[in-house]
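C-alpha cells for chain A. Residues wanted.
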C-alpha cells in the first residue's frame, strides 16, 4: 500500500548553517527540485555564532538572518518552522512530524546540529539554567539579565569566555567555573590561555579553574548557590556551557549508524540509501564533529552536491576558530595540546604567532591580535606553507 503524505524530492531536517548551505547547493545544482527545510525553531534561520557575541548590546529576532524572508520564496525553498521531526522510517522514505503528519522524501539530509551537555549535578537535581544555543533562548536570557546583578558560567570553552566578556560589558558580576586547569585549552597552548585568563580577571571576572561543583541549590527569586571546594558561589543567573553532543535523537531505532555522531562517508552519506547527514550531528572518520561553523557549512555543501548526483568529497580540511574578547583577537587552527610538534614562535610587539610545522609545512597555528590577516593564516595552514614562506608573506 502506498504511504500518504506530502512529497518533496529533498527534505532537510534542521535549518542551521549545514541545512541551509545544503538547500542553497541543491537549488544551485537543480533549478526545479522541490526542497523542504524543517526547523524546530521559530522564525527564519540565523547566524548562530552571533547570538553570544551580542549580549551586552542586545539584539532582536530580525537580526543575524542568514537570508531575508523573501529569499526562501524567491529560491522556492519551503521552510517549515516550529516543526519537530519525530521519526524517520527509511524503508518507506518517510518522516513523521510531531503535529503535521507524514512527509515523503526522495533524498533526506539530517542536519540536526548538537545539543548542550547538561552536567549530571544539574540534570539530577532538575536545576533550571541557560544554555545559549538558540536565538529565542538567548533573547530570554537577555531579559533575565536586565533584572540581574550576577551570573555564574559553568564551562571553560569559547562560548564560556565570550558570554563572560559580554556579561562583564553589560555591567554584571561574573563568576566562571571550570573543571579544566585552563580556559580554551582545546584551542590554545597554556601560555595563550593564561593570557586570556589574566585579561578576564583584570576585567573583573572571578575565575575558578580546576574546580568541581559538589552541590547546587536554586530558589526562585533568590538565585543559585553553587558549593565548590572551600566556598559557596551565589549568583542570580546560571549559564551552562559545558560542551555539545551531536543531536542524534531523530535517528534512534532507524538502523542509521551512530558513533560519536551520525556516521557518514566522504560524500556525507549515511549507511542508509538516500539519507545523508551534515554539520554538528555528523561524524566523518574517527573524529567527533568539529562543532565549528565553517565545518558545518562545508559539510552542508558537500552533502547538497552529492544529493543532487554531483560529486564532492569531505577532505581532511581543517577549520579555524576565532574569538574576540575586549577588543583583542585570538585565532587557532588545527592546534591540539596532545600533538607533539613543537611550536615556532614569531612574536613582535602585540602580535604573537606560534606555528606548528611538519615536514610537509604548516600544520597548525595559534595567533593573537592580527585580525586583518586572519585569512592569510588560514591559507598558510590549508596550503601547508613552509616557515620561510610564512615569514615572507606574513611578516611581523
Ligand atoms: C552561541 C554559539 C556561538 C558559537 N560561536 C562559534 C564561533 O564563534 N565559531 C565557530 O566556528 N563556531 C561557533 N559555534 C558553533 C557553530 O555555531 C556550530 O558548529 C554550527 O552552527 C553548527 O551548525 P549545524 O547546522 O550543524 O547545526 P545547528 O546550527 O545546531 O542547527 C541544527 C538545527 O536543527 C534543529 N533540529 C534538531 N533536531 C530537529 C528535529 N528533530 N526536527 C526539526 N529541527 C531539528 C535544531 O533545533 C537547530 O535549529 C557557536 C555555537 C553557539 C551555540
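Reply:
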Amino acid at each position: 500500500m502506498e504511504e500518504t503524505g506530502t512529497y518533496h524530492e529533498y527534505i532537510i531536517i534542521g535549518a542551521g548553517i549545514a541545512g541551509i548551505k545544503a538547500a542553497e547547493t541543491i537549488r544551485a545544482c537543480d533549478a526545479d527540485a522541490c526542497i523542504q527545510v524543517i526547523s524546530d525553531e521559530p522564525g527564519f534561520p540565523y547566524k548562530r555564532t552571533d547570538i553570544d557575541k551580542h549580549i551586552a548590546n542586545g539584539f532582536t529576532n530580525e537580526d543575524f538572518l542568514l537570508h531575508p524572508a523573501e529569499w526562501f520564496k524567491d529560491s522556492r525553498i519551503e521552510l517549515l518552522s516550529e516543526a519537530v521531526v519525530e521519526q524517520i522510517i527509511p524503508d518507506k522514505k518517510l518522516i513523521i512530524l510531531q503535529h503535521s503528519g507524514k512527509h515523503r522524501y526522495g533524498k533526506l539530509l539530517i542536519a540536526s546540529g548538537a545539543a548542550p551537555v547538561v552536567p549530571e549535578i544539574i540534570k539530577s537535581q532538575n536545576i533550571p539554567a541557560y544554555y545559549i544555543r538558540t536565538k529565542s533562548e538567548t533573547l530570554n536570557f537577555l531579559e533575565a539579565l536586565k533584572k540581574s546583578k550576577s551570573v555564574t558560567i559553568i564551562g571553560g570553552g569559547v562560548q564560556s569566555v565570550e558570554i563572560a566578556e559580554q556579561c562583564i560589558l553589560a555591567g554584571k558580576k561574573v563568576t566562571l567555573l571550570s573543571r579544566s586547569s585552563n580556559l580554551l585549552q582545546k584551542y590554545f597552548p597554556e601560555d595563550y590561555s593564561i593570557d586570556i585568563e589574566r585579561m578576564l580577571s583584570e576585567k573583573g571576572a572571578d575565575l575558578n579553574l580546576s574546580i568541581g561543583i559538589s552541590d547546587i541549590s536554586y530558589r526562585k527569586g533568590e538565585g543559585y548557590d553553587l558549593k565548590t571546594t572551600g566556598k559557596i558561589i551565589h549568583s542570580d543567573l546560571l549559564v551552562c556551557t559545558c560542551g555539545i553532543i551531536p543531536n542524534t535523537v531523530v535517528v534512534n531505532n532507524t538502523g542509521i549508524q551512530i558513533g560519536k555522531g551520525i556516521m557518514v562517508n566522504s560524500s556525507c552519506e549515511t549507511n542508509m540509501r538516500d539519507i545523508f547527514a551534515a554539520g554538528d550531528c555528523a561524524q566523518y572518520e574517527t573524529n567527533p564533529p568539529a562543532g565549528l561553523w565553517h565545518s558545518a557549512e562545508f559539510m552542508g555543501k558537500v552533502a547538497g552536491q552529492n544529493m543532487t548526483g554531483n560529486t564532492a568529497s569531505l577532505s581532511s580540511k581543517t577549520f579555524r576558530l576565532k574569538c574576540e574578547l575586549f577588543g583583542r583577537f585570538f585565532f587557532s587552527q588545527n592546534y591540539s595540546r596532545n600533538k607533539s610538534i613543537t611550536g615556532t614562535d614569531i612574536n613582535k610587539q602585540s602580535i604573537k604567532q606560534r606555528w606548528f610545522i611538519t615536514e610537509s609545512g604548516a600544520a597548525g597555528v595559534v595567533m593573537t591580535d592580527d585580525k586583518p590577516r586572519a585569512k592569510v593564516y588560514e591559507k598558510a595552514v590549508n596550503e601547508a606553507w613552509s616557515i620561510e614562506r610564512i615569514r615572507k608573506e606574513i611578516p611581523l
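The pocket of flavin-adenine dinucleotide is lined by residues 13-19, 38-41, 48-49, 51-52, 84-85, 111-114, 132-133, 159, 247, 250, 279-280, 291-294, 296, 321 (CB under 6 Å). The chain has a mean pLDDT of 94.
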